[in-house]
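If you are new to this repository, start here. Below is one unmodified record pulled from the training split, so you can see the exact layout before writing a loader.
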Amino acid sequence: MIRTRITEMFGIEHPIIQGGMHHVGYAEMAAAVSNAGGLGIITGLTQRTPELLANEIARCRDMTDKPFGVNLTFLPSVVPPDYPGYIRAIIEGGVKIVETAGNNPAKWLPVLKENGIKVIHKCTSVRHSLKAESIGCDAVSVDGFECGGHPGEDDVGNWILLPRAAEELKIPFVASGGVGNGAQLAAALALGADGVNMGTRFIATKEAPVHENVKQAILAANELDTRLVMRPLRNTERVLTNAAVERLLEKEKALGANIKFEDILPEVAGVYPRIMSEGDMEAGAWSCGMVVGLIHDIPTVKELVDRMVADAEAIITKRLARLTVAA
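And here is the target side for that same chain:
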């Protein structure tokens, strides 16, 4: 057993969290991770309305009696989502853990705290992590440059970011980005983290509610097969390469500083259902981490979690212990 501040805070068996993922974080995914002893997360905004989120929370309750959370990503938008409605659905659904991402969640913390909800905020830098700590977040997920999705604009990998976070933070934090096996869980703990957050690795599991083509694409890829898109827009996203992604990169190169979001709409707008549900792997850009280079099988979620924990325990108690020699 690996006990950390994160397992204690969230009431989970293993310090492994499944991050919020668009059109992946459904009840089936969250319940599988929670039943395996980790913390499953439903992706709030994948549900188009608060009512649909309430239904998804209820579905998850039917699948697990273990703790699970909901991800809420706060994004700038001309017509913002009904955040008060989503938060109401979370509270009324009895969810006690929320993963926030995107913009500063300070506006929403009081109502969450009043209802006994723990908040873990996703951050891509130490300064943002310290801000999250200062406004009252209970924990942070520190996202290194290796991560799928949005790695921020600092380009700092976890080898530096995690020990820097350990130097500065008082609240617990988990390592996110590039994590896929037990050796990395042990390494994250050694660098000061209290657990790990995984996205891409959980997509390549039997229970992940995505098309088989998506899982096979992850299995076939290596660590050189991701690309960074939307850098000129300062909205950098790490995605798995395909024809649409290469087309997008050509547009960025040709248009340079004059590029606008409208120029890349065909490659990014509304592509997730086509990819995740229909398996159209050339439809557009979809978030994927460099950890694809470490993914060699499609186990059940429980097999993955159990293997990671067993490997981490063996590394900590056996391999590393053998390397220390008395003076």
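Two things worth knowing about this chain: The first strand starts at residue 16 and ends at 18. The radius of gyration is 19 Å.
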